[in-house]
Amino acid sequence: MPVAKPVSSDGRVIAHIDMDCFYVQVEQRRQPELRGLPTAVVQYNSWKGGGLIAVSYEARKHGVKRSMRGDEAKEVCPQIRLVQVPVARGKADLNSYREAGSEVVSILARAGRCERASIDEVYLDLTDAAETMLAETPPESLEVIDDEALKSHILGLKHEDGSDMKENVKEWLCRSDADHRDKLLACGVLIVADLRMQVLQETQFTCSAGISHNKMLSKLASAMNKPAQQTVVPCLSVQGLLESLPIKKMKQLGGKLGSSLQSELGVNFVGDLLRFSEQKLQEYYGINTGTWLWNIARGISGEEVEGRLLPKSHGSGKTFPGPRALKMLPSVQHWLNELCEELSERLHIDLDQNRRIARTLSLHASAYMSSDSDSHKKFPSKSCPLRYGTIKIQEDAMNLFQAGLREYLGPFKVKMQGNKKSGWGITGLSVSASKISDIPSGTSSIMKYFQGQDQLCSPSKLAKDKLELENPCSFSEDESNSTLNVIEHMKLPEEEATIKNESSDLVSTEYKTSRNSLEVPFYSAMPSLEKADFSQETPLSFSGRESHLEPKLTELRSKVSGEESTFESGRPASEQQVKRNSLRDKGTPSLLRFFRRVDPSCSLQNEVLTQSFDNTNICSSSENSISIHGDSLSEDLQGKEMWQYNVDEIDPSVIDELPLKIQEEVRAWLRPQKRQANSVRRSVGITDYFSRNKKL
DNA sequence: ACGGGTGAGACA
DNA sequence: TTGTCTCAC
Fold first, then answer.
1. Could you tell me which residues belong to the region Disordered (predicted)?
2. A545, CA 20 to 30 Å: which among A426, A504, A594, A607?
């Protein structure tokens, strides 16, 4: 639901930049012979020629529309060139478009605060740039105005027959008697025209733009003249624009809310909303939406340009429509593995390029169940803390799926004996990673990361209990024996074979990845204890025929007593391991909890040395106790916020949940004998390492 | 039960 | 907060 934001009296200059049929342009850049031809991008083509997701303007002239099938497009436009979306891991791979979108963003972001609204859309706050231009080189002072700016469309500008349009535009841009806000918009027009030319020059992509005083109007304007044009909405034209604008054209009103406005209130144009008081609209649609509606009817929208160049989440999903629905658990596992592999790859790229870490893994699925009246039941979404590493993500996703499945099947449990004819199937799977945050560079990154974890992941006791109940890793044993084992017998022989092959692929993939990055030397440099832990962990759940479905061998955990909730691995353990496991807390941000698990008796008796890096202090006492706190905190807070723990008690495996690159830092940092001497030197190396891949 | 794959945001 | 829902391209 839309929400009204506080309105700033709008002297802002906001632009919305919209790439023209973006995927088509990306493909045309890759294959220049397609330029100028009717072209469309399709994903998959086996069924009715695939679905169109982008259509060139030449093809649109022939009546080709988005969401046509490839075959339909061929019917209305036989000469159309259809380009397929790249496929990787059996699914559409949009990475090339994401990367192309990033190219554009990095150019646009030079001009002002920039928000990546989608893969091909950007909002820009050009207020500062426009004010500066108006003060230093206002349009009226320029001898020449670029042709691209003169081609702009100015809403409400009168156009007498016979007069030269560009001349009109030039006049409007250079009016010395215009009010301040129109002058700012005029500057915006020049800036945006220039930006669009830069984008074209540097990427070969054309785009369209809207320029106005807020996001809503700019978004409307950018769509008015496409492709490769720009439109400005001066204040005085707002009323005229909105009064005849079909309500469904307004962003956020294209769906049910817009329909409701039409059918319930007889509002067919945005201007029709003016008939209703704010209070009336609030009565119908609630306080937030009501106020929002009242505002947009007047062209008011206080929404800020966010200043975000990167996505807030990453997802990978696929649908399995109709007959392709997944009926067997091994098929689900196969596809989940593919999706997780892609997700993991993208997470690592994000880590390398942007030094960002995601903290939550979510699984969404859609399913049908024809057996009973319950067929409308939705498959529940599940999420858990995200552990880095392809195999871990795959395991966790599978656990989330099984948690969802048990809930979904619920009372049907045993009845749903699986074979391919049974009345249920999975029609969609997706995994996503969210709660992404920056890791500041430098040695202190680790500290800051932990602090951030603490803030964001410190659950109340209540929330923790809930987590224990819902976390797929915490199923009790007898619970898991019932449903899951039933399902386990549903495997078909062929599918089992597929999975087995794939499993080994996964392991080798992981190994390959490791060798390519800096991790192997690090692995081999690790103390033997840690190495042992890895060798046990990696292939474990994929090594045997039933392993990937056998809860005892995967991540089954039971609750262990204690004030802090603790999960303990169910697998056989050496004495040493038992000791470590008592500190283990997998499936949750365990490092964090670990840090909170303070043992005062160890730390207080030690004398504390202080060493400062950036704005984080690492206080180390003797060889085996370290405490961390930010020095930006006030004196009295510092005492409370300080964490202390004994280095010897760190379970190496909890570190595994961090991204590998961070693990490296942590382990080096924890290496007792060299900690002191290495600190400064390492901070340089790490900073250096992090800045090496810097892109944007 | 084919507009797919992805994103963002609001709400309970 | 998690999970659900809506909306958009």
1. 558-583
2. A426
